[in-house]
Design goal:
225 residues; 3-stranded antiparallel β-sheet; mainly alpha; 7 helices; 2 domains
Length: 225
């Protein structure tokens, strides 16, 4: 009996020692080392790829934001604020504000087939809205010029980027709404267009948040000049 009790005690003590050692190594030392290496080599990415403007964090370059007008009484969905470049469609994006909030439970695409009637109706309505919103006097938008990313969400539903084609399509509308020279707004788009990663991975893209921060600065400069 005593021998059995002693063996059980030794096994229990060995298990406790293993638990303490593994807790120290895996729960304390390893996270500290990983965090230290990440902060030392890539602090921006380690902290969420934050984007700052006017001394405050306004979002992340990895997660898109919406640019909507305040929700009016009786409205279920806020109308887009057409002074700004608009992101890809998504119900998961939070509204751009000082304290950016994301109305998310989960992210993801619609997962509907290409011939699904509901998806076709969504895309058709989205294309009509893009044409209407971006057609300005002297510069009507041809429906055939509306790129796919203007009417479809990304796989995550949180894409922070749009295609250069969609950004260019919005130039005339943004310039008119902000009383700016379209050529200057077009130049802004070109300055914020990123090429393929390493020259061959992915597609050229424009980060909407960074573009709109630059647009805000351009508007402010135009008002004070």
């Amino acid at each position: 009996m005593n021998t059995s009790l002693g063996n059980s005690a030794r096994q229990l003590w060995a298990a406790l020692r293993a638990l303490l050692v593994l807790t120290l190594v895996c729960g304390v030392l390893y996270p500290l080392v990983v965090t230290g290496v990440a902060q030392g080599l890539m602090p921006g990415r380690a902290n969420g790829s934050e984007i700052t403007a006017d001394g405050r964090t306004v979002g992340s370059e990895l997660i898109g934001q919406r640019y909507d007008l305040p929700l009016k009484k009786g409205e279920d969905t806020a109308a887009p604020d057409l002074r700004w470049f608009q992101p890809r469609p998504s119900n998961g994006l939070g509204t751009n504000s000082v304290n950016t909030q994301y109305s998310l439970i989960l992210s993801g695409a619609t997962n509907r087939s290409g011939d699904n009637k509901e998806l076709i109706d969504w895309v058709t309505a989205a294309k009509a809205a893009v044409v209407e919103d971006n057609s300005v006097p002297g510069h009507p938008v041809d429906p055939s010029d509306v790129p796919a990313d203007a009417v479809t969400s990304s796989g995550s539903g949180l894409d922070p980027d749009i295609s250069p084609a969609y950004a260019r399509l919005q130039v005339q509308r943004v310039a008119l709404r902000n009383h700016l020279d379209p050529a200057r707004v077009q130049q802004l788009v070109e300055q914020h267009t990123d090429g393929r990663i390493l020259g061959f991975v992915g597609e050229p893209r424009v980060n909407v948040l960074r573009l709109n921060i630059a647009l805000r600065q351009l508007v402010d400069d135009a008002r004070t000049s």
